[in-house]
Amino acid sequence: MIRRIEHLGIAVQDIQASNALFEKLLNTAPYKMEVVEREGVMTSFFQLGESKVELLQATHPDSPIAKYLEKNKQGIHHIALDVDDIYAEMARLEKEGFVLLSNEPKPGADGKIIVFLHPKSTNGVLIELCQDTKN
Ligand code: CO
Q: How far is the C-alpha of 89 from the C-alpha of 47, rounded, in Å?
């Protein structure tokens, strides 16, 4: 089951400068920063009620975020949906014709396992499914 929008992912050039900007905007400090080395990203998270904002900065030039920022301006990069059973949702969405970017969920930031849907099958919106592994 898809339960809610877990977070919005925003691609940024400079995460320190963006942390300061979003801290002013949202009137709250980021509650954590985390590098996800296999994704080539430095992340920071802001809690907003039941949802979050995730800032993403590339950690190397081959990072998906670096590639994204070569073609796009800074801005909304993905929408993450909280699911209770990621394998069940992957099977359901694949059956509906959506294209998954990996066959298995991968470890993401903030204690999640995640999988992305290809934007060509979702009207150009990069969708992340994420399931909390902490509880
Ligand atoms: Co995300």
A: 25
